[in-house]
Write a structure and sequence with these properties.
There is one protein chain. By secondary structure, this protein is an alpha/beta fold. 35% of the residues lie in helices and 20% in strands. The protein has 3 helices and 5 strands; from the N terminus they run E-H-E-H-H-E-E-E. It has a 5-stranded mixed beta sheet with strand order 2-1-3-5-4, with helices on both faces. It is globular. The two termini are 22 Å apart.
């Protein structure tokens, strides 16, 4: 994925592997942002995302991850950032998404 991509990852195997890659293996060379849709249900996580990634300038106003995920996707696409997900979620049906190896690249709304 490109250095400024955003990856939406859930489940311990995907999430922790990607966090390990981002913060340990590629700490100095990658600006990939890995977010957990499941954790977006918690205010502390949304606050941490805003603090840790001000470059995203996320307008997280939703109170649930089901509402926040489309906000994040639409905002990242509007910024010209590539965005990926680790699995085919129900909300993915609203978007054009293509398999890219183990990920799905979200291209835009249907």
């Amino acid at each position: 994925v490109p250095d400024d991509a955003v990856i939406l990852a859930d489940g311990d195997p995907h999430l922790f592997a990607l966090w390990y890659y981002r913060y340990v293996t590629a700490f100095d060379s990658s600006q990939v942002i890995v977010l957990s849709p499941e954790l977006l249900n918690y205010a502390w996580y949304s606050d941490e995302i805003r603090r840790a990634f001000p470059v995203l300038d996320l307008p997280l106003t939703a109170s649930s991850s089901q509402d926040a995920v489309p906000q994040i996707i639409d905002h990242c696409l509007a910024q010209g950032r590539e965005i990926y997900t680790t699995r085919a979620y129900d909300w993915l049906a609203a978007y054009h998404a293509d398999p890219e190896g183990e990920l799905y690249q979200i291209r835009g709304r249907r």
